[in-house]
Amino acid sequence: MTGRLSIKRSAAGFTIVELMIATAVFSVVLLLATSGLLQITRTYYKGVTEANTQNTARTIIGTVAQAIQFDGGTVQPTNGSNPRTTYDFCVGNTRFRYYLGSELMTSPTSVQTYHALLQDSAAGCTSGADGSSINSSSVSCTTATNCSELVSPNMRLSQFSVTSLGSNLYQIKVTVVYGDDDLLDSPTSTSPNCLGVEAGTQFCAVSKISTTVLKRVE
Questions:
Q1: Which residues of the chain have pLDDT under 50?
Q2: Residue 69: helix, strand or coil by DSSP?
Q3: 54 in the Ramachandran plot: left (φ > 0), alpha (ψ -120 to 50) or beta?
Q4: Whole-prediction pTM value?
């Protein structure tokens, strides 16, 4: 007598509703993870931008302070602070030519500049408004011409002043700003600020540094 073996097959599985719930939960988790990753990335680049801006401001302060302290010669304090205007500042034969309020770019538009702060040598240097603006493609600045640009691309020099306090004591004030005009409040003023917006905030930074130096070499 031949017996028959009955086998029950399980038809258990996920329903459409369960799949939809699982997909929704996964989507929320993925959205939160992506948002967190974007915030971390934004914070990282914000830190890099601020560090680079601060380093540039410190370099300017250090270069000018060293010139005042050790280059010798007459220190002729700065004489202007209006945006988009070229000025000179001299320490002996060391000259600093600066252009305030405009973003430094390799191919600038009408509201940007070719040069922001140039250091070079000029025999018989005297302080005062320069005869030719450094905001020109014809102004060449290379190490071969004993010239250097102290401001980095996408930055601007918003304030630069050297004031005599008497007794060979000088105060240096520098404000360096990173960012395009649309990320700044009053971008061409001497005291611009980053706008309180979320988009692009990692590409905006302001560094203000002030120091006092004593002239040590006559």
A1: none
A2: helix
A3: alpha
A4: 0.80
